[in-house]
Write a sequence for this structure.
């Protein structure tokens, strides 16, 4: 019976020692892994230092391109609005009353029908005016 207690205590101590050694070993492996990963990250940062400045130039290029695109879109929309404002009265009159001499100038009449349809398509392309 005394021998059983001694064996129990020895094995319990051995299990406790192995358990604590396992925890200590895991922490060492974790610290070594972190240090290796940090070293690799530092190495990549040093190797790609030039790449970072290239990325900054690329971001500047994208920003400038976006600004140019917005400016172009605004200019096109302004041009379309000006065109529609100039011809809208004529097109509205034609849509409401037709040609004054129906059948007299068929090419003119069909051209006005086509022109009227295209102006309506242009109006649909413009953004809707927001009420303030």
């Amino acid at each position: 019976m005394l021998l059983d207690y001694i064996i129990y205590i020895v094995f319990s101590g051995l299990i406790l020692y192995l358990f604590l050694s396992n925890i200590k070993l895991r922490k060492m492996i974790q610290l070594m892994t972190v240090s290796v990963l940090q070293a690799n990250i530092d190495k990549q940062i040093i190797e790609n230092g030039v790449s970072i400045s290239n990325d900054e130039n690329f971001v500047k290029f994208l920003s400038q391109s976006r600004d140019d695109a917005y400016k172009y879109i605004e200019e096109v929309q302004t041009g379309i609005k000006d065109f529609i404002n100039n011809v809208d009265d004529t097109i509205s009159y034609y849509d409401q009353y037709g040609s004054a001499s129906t059948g007299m100038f068929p090419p003119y009449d069909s051209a006005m029908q086509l022109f009227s349809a295209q102006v309506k398509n242009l109006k649909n392309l413009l953004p809707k005016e927001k009420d303030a």
